[in-house]
Structures are given as C-alpha cells and as structure tokens.
Amino acid sequence: MLKEVTTDRLYTHVICENMKSFVNILREQQDTAFPRLSDSTWKREELLRALLVGFAVWLLRVWLQKFVFSKGFQKYSVRLRRKLSENLYYSIAYCLSFACGLITLTLEDWRVDLRGPLLVELWSPYPPPLSTFFRSYYVVELGYYLGSLVFLLFSDTKHSDFLEFCIHHVATILLIYISYSFRYVRIGLVILVLHDASDILLYSTKCVYYIGFRPLDSIMFTAFAVIFYFTRLFIFPRIIWGVAVDIIRLILRNHSFSGFASNWPVHFSHYFICLFALSTLELLHCFWFSLILKMIGRVIFASFEKLREEGDIRSDDEDSEQ
Fold first, then answer.
1. Residue 93's pLDDT is what?
2. Which of 9, 30, 24 is nearest to 264 (CA)?
3. What sequence ranges are listed for the domain TLC (predicted)?
C-alpha cells in the first residue's frame, strides 16, 4: 500500500513539474508578431463549392432513389423499398468517400505510425502544405455531410437514435470545418478514412438484412462490429490522445516546435475546440457500440425468427413513416 501511495505521489509530482515547464515555455516563446493564420481559413469560393456539392448530392440522391433504385426493388413493399434505396445510396456514397480518402492519403508524402509513442507526422510541419487534390477532398466531404444532414432532418427513416445521429453529423461538419480552418487536416483525413471503413459495412449489412440473405447478414454484421470497435474505440481514442497530449509533449521536447508556443493563445483555442468535437464523436461511438452489443446479444440468445420480427435495434419511428 505504501509503495502504491509513493508511486502515485511521484506521478503527480512529475505531471505538476511538466505542466510548470510547459507554462514557462509558453511565456518565453510567445511572440505577438507571429502570424495569426488568417490565410489558412476557408476561402469564400471553397465554401461556395461545398454548398454546390451539397446541392449536387441532394439532386443525385433524389434521382437515384426515384428512377434507379426503385426499379430494382419493385417486388418489395413501399416502406421496404424506401429503406433499401436509402441504405444502398449510403453504401455507395461511403465506398466512394473511403476510396477518395485512401487516394488522398496515398498521394501525400507522409505516413503516421499509430503504434508510435508520438504522432509527430500529424503535427509537423505546421501548417502543412495542401495539394489541390487534398483541398478538393475536403470541399467534397464538407458538401457531402451538409447534404446528408438535410436528408437526415427531412427525408431519412427516423430511428430511436435520431438525435444522436443529428449530433454526429453536426460534430462531423464542425470537425471538417475547423480542421481545415486550423490546418489540422492530417488529423481530419485520418479520422474521415477511419469512419468510412465501418460505415460501408453498416449500410451494406442493412441492405443484405432487408433483402433477406441469411446468414450472410449475420456474418457481415459481425465483421462490421469488429471493424467498428477497432477503428472507433481502439484507433480513434489514440487520435484523441495524440491531439490532447502529444502536442504538449512535443513542445516540452522542442520549445519552438512548429511555432505553437509562439502563438499559443490562438493555437490552444483551436486545440480545445478540436478536442471538444473529437470527444463528442467518441461518446457517440460508445453509445452506438452499446447498441451493437445489444444486437449481438440478441443474435446469440434469441432465435433467428425473433430477430427477423424485431429488426434493427435502432427502431423506426412509425409516426414518421406514415
């Protein structure tokens, strides 16, 4: 017991000393003449292009669901046809988004080792150079999520986690906007690719389930649960830790690291806003994984007939369907 208390006191002392050193570094390095990164924010034409992408996404989805998908699902009921069209659209959209994210990552000259002690590649150099393709990727992602939020609010099937999905989309839009404005684009790129990986399986699994392909739906759902856990509850917290702690450790090692300490009032206002958005997303991930565990429990302990009758753990709002 005495050894544990001594160890705790030692850790507390080390943390306090590091924080004192960190505060002193900020005071010594602050330079009021340091550039305010005003040229790093979204340009007006980029925001306009994002809005145009959102409108184009809306038109494309309406056309696909009304004239393409509906013809392939004629034998199903109107309600089921709507669900199948909706989930098929998202399956294709997230496949394309995932592919674009991987291409963007491949074209970059940096790689991040998530197993490393420090995620230096996400922070150095700062601000990072942005290729035309990288900028276009961000514009399209912002436009896509703006369009998706409109559909979520006014068109998509309403589920019991409708509020959580709205918060998720708003937090994602905020994250895309601020990561580009603050030039945390490398962090944003990695996060978007991680999210797309599990979203592809989520919506394609629901399509298979609604069509009635057994037991393929259960196999795909198991794969989705594993990938969701690995990307959003294992890797994603490492990204949050990299944002919350690694930058402080890097400044302690190198006082002039990427100029953060020189203009710390601006950088740390960015830091806390970004950390808030990431933490909000992670809380939602924990909530959704609890639903996934409930569904797994239903598969294990209930009969498949009962599973078919009850359907998705995210129950539909019948009133909104009428």
1. 94
2. 30
3. 75-301
